[in-house]
Design brief:
Elements lengths: L2 H23 L4 H23 L5 H26 L9
Helix pairs in contact: 1-2, 1-3, 2-3
Length: 92
């Protein structure tokens, strides 16, 4: 497996696990917690890149990690928007 996937896979797993936890626990407040999961995924991606300690390909590894995590969270958000559409209504 390439270095890019080795460093990106844990970030994707964190995003998937935390996104599913939000889906199960938060109910209609999911829209509040999905950005928090995205931020945590970004921090995990940076931490993994610091642990890798290689300059070459840093931007590529970070990009693949973060974009993959966002794709996972967009998919989870799409399902949650169908299941809990009330969270998308705005009140004034």
């Amino acid at each position: 497996m390439s270095r890019v996937l080795v460093s990106a896979l844990p970030v994707w797993v964190v995003a998937l696990g935390a996104g599913l936890a939000v889906a199960v626990v938060s109910g209609s407040a999911w829209l509040t917690w999905i950005p928090v999961v995205a931020a945590v995924s970004l921090l995990v991606a940076f931490a993994i890149q610091l642990a890798v300690g290689r300059r070459e390909g840093l931007v590529t590894r970070l990009g693949v990690s973060v974009v993959g995590a966002l794709v996972v969270l967009v998919a989870i958000s799409g399902v949650l928007a169908i299941v809990h559409p009330v969270a998308l209504t705005f009140s004034v």
